[in-house]
Design brief:
- The chain is about 85% helix and about 0% strand.
- It is mainly α.
- The protein has one domain.
- It is globular.
Length: about 160
Amino acid sequence: MEMIEGILERFWGKMLVTAMVSMVPVLELRGGIPIGIALGLKPMQALATGLLGNMFPIPFIIVYIRRIFQWLRRRLPWLERMLDALERKAHLKGANVKKYGPLGLFLLVAIPLPGTGGWTGALVAAFLNLRMKNALPAIFLGILTAGLIMIFLSNAIL
């Protein structure tokens, strides 16, 4: 029984690490999936865990990021330049999203390169006032696509 508990404990620990790395901006699935596979998760386990971890903060970002930025500007004025840069980035990346709608948002999130991903997609959705019912499916499908690309690349490299 102790052996089974040890195996489950290690398995859940690997999943937790994968999910936590996938929640981090910039790293997201690009970091979570290769780490999960390197820790010993099967590719589909790493994908599912990374997908859940990456998606977890997305609704909160879409709903609350503007209020968080306002609060930060009032309380920590020295962050103003960084917050302005993030807003500019969201508006620049949002040009194609404005033009193509949810398909543009999907494409922005689906390409696993720096400056793209779920966090960027959620920022763009928030600053373009996209409705949650339109933004979430596009971001989810984009993260899933990016995850599948990362599994392919991780298997090819590892």
